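Section 3.1: Structural characterization of target chains.
Under the original work plan, the team committed to producing a structural model for every single-chain target entering the pipeline before any wet-lab resources were allocated. The record below documents one such target. The sequence was received from the expression subgroup and is listed exactly as submitted; it comprises 336 residues.
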Amino acid sequence: MKMNAIMKLISMVLTVSMLCAMLSGCSGKPGGRSGGKISIVATIFPQYDFARRIAGERADIRMLLRPGMEAHSYEPSPKDIIGISECDLFLNVGGESESWLDAVLESADNPDMLTVSAMDCVEAIEEETAEGMQSREHHHHGEEEHEEAHHHDDGEEEEEEYDEHVWTSPMNAIAICNEINRALCQLDPDNAEFYCDNTNQYVAELMELDCLFRNVIDASERKLLVFGDRFPLLYFVREYGLEYYAAFPGCAAETEPSAATVAFLIDAVKRVRVPVVFYIELSNHKVADAIAEATGTRTAQFNTCHNISAKDFAAGESYLSLMRANVEVLREALNG
């Protein structure tokens, strides 16, 4: 493992240990929550899964995005809004796909509620349109429209758009878990040791996952991944020094790529002799199938963990189990 990765891991462990020491003498509400459980609401699966590993049975945890639902089109129902306003801890992404978030939080009359936004836990990176990728619809401006779209009326440049899928890097997942742990210890200091112990155990498993990815990638000469689908994995490839080609950006609304995009991906698969074309979960994977058929390769699912199918949810699949499955398909894609 590289030295900077080792330093990151040491830093993560020290963060949890220091937090436990700081909170060991804290006082708070008797019995944590006056004998009741902490109420946690998470917008999507990764934060929901992190919370249930850290809080266990000492919290009631609800996920707003139903298993199998398309995440980017979700909007909270009145019941969801009530649940958010009444919870003790609200876990969200904090990106543009949750544009409704500010209004809901402003209307919630709950000054004691804590929030953890995943994008605030890590260094966010800007979205990008990679070579050969189908551009998003709002990039299809004429020259004049393009100029207007990137400037406000007062002449200032528009803020950059950042990729939301921060949890796809296990190292980022550790940072998010540390913040969830910090919030739980603040809400329930009497049980701080319990939350810190769970966090330490989970961080150790995430560190092991990180090592598995690094071992596979370090032993592989090929570093290119091809996705016939959206690509919500910028944080993952940046963490591990991988390259990629894909049909669409991570939050693209399009489902049908141009002929030029398909031709580019087919050429890339043939030129680099990529053995696997990936698609993501809850996708119809038609584009990946078409590329694989044209190149004589096979397709495989790469889990982004943005959401999970109802079947996998009922079977108890987790962030760790889904990411461990990625280790094996990655091994084949880089070494086949």
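The beta strands are 38-42, 59-63, 89-92, 114-117, 224-231, 243-249, 276-280, 298-302.
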